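Side project, low priority. Logging it here so it doesn't get lost.
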Amino acid sequence: MDEIERFLDYLLAERGYSRLTLKTYRSSLTSLRDYLDEHCERIGWEAVDSDMIRNWIAATLIAGTDKRTMRKHLAATRSFYRYLLRMGKVTTDPAHLVGNPKVAKRLPEFLKEQEMNALFDTLTYPDTFQGHRDRLILLTLCSTGIRLSELTGLCVEHIALEKGELKVLGKHNKERIVPFGNELRETLLAYLPLRESLCHIPTGPLFLREDTKALRDSEVREIVKQHISSVSSIRKRTPHVLRHTFATVMLNHGADIRAVQEILGHESMTTTEVYTHVSISDLKEQYAKAHPRVHNEPHSSSE
């Protein structure tokens, strides 16, 4: 087994990284290894220097990889070299001296509040198991801000109806408690008997297909895309858009940013702070639209 595979096994067993993250790390490190094999005569990891990594970055960008993806490649490389240092496989870390390619900040897309409300106040859902399930999916995402993987990982036993709490398994297998309100509680109370009559099991995955198997991520994405398309012309129509919507609505209505960070399960406050920029951006847009003197030309003082 080579060092990359040992590293990935470590991330899975010791750090609880997801399979998707491991797939991304494997792709990044394989790209670096292939470059080194071709251009540096198959040197070992201990012989790699910062210039070699910079040259790999340059070659990869020229080949068409975008800067955001390259930043992910570098993050994987830095994590890999920290691991190699701890394991005594190398004595220096060439990756930590290499800076990220600069990219323009991209604000997250989100539904406007009236569009979010339209999902539940305007759209009509069939009075069937599927109709109740789909509405519950959308309401859970909008009411709690949980990730897609956290939603499909929810089990009935993770719900405390009386307390109004969900137990969520987030990134790196970290559990957190997410609160919810009366509307979601009532929607759950209407859905759970339908679910139990379908599968006859009061525990297990919360969201099921009609064949009683757990709903897949791809199926949730399609449900979300279909319903967002009915209320908004937003370009992205994904479950993560509803996570962004949750955070933006919370901050716009005066929630403390640290509370939002805790609910979302962000490790860094920096990740949550992007939503304050979204709020200010939206505020400026509304100001520009509404104030009568914003676009007035200034009067000339000359005759």
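Brief comment: The longest strand covers residues 165-169.
Revisit when time allows.
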